[in-house]
Amino acid sequence: MSQWSIKIVAAASGKGAAFQPNVPGYNQGDALPAQDGDAVFWSNMTADTHQPWPTHSDYSPLSEADVLPRGSANYLSDPIPGQEPSTPLYNVAQPSPTQNNWTVYYYCRLHPTIETERGTIAATVRPTE
Prior knowledge:
Blueprint lengths: L2 E8 L6 E5 L10 E4 L3 E6 L7 E4 L8 H4 L22 E2 L9 E8 L9 E7 L5
Parallel strand pairs: 1-4, 3-8
Antiparallel strand pairs: 1-2, 4-6, 5-7, 7-8
């Protein structure tokens, strides 16, 4: 199992923040590649508080009933103060036994109208050895 970081940085557009996988060669808005069982956290490099929140593919938010309580499979993070890491870790989990590839869509719950504050995790099932 791997642990991944996604940086929350000032958006290149100058408006709001952006999500950038902390992977060499990856840019703002790129999907984080992860596998079932990996752990993900966000590193807030800005002065503002942000909260990754799961969405549908059109970036409409999942309901609180689909996400809460904290620690459930869809819960991504508590609000993340400026210059702090997220808690708890988000564990990438295969949504169903028949899905070998899936995408986790999310946005900043505190800034839902800022289009740069959207991100994705491109997940796959870990190959069997």
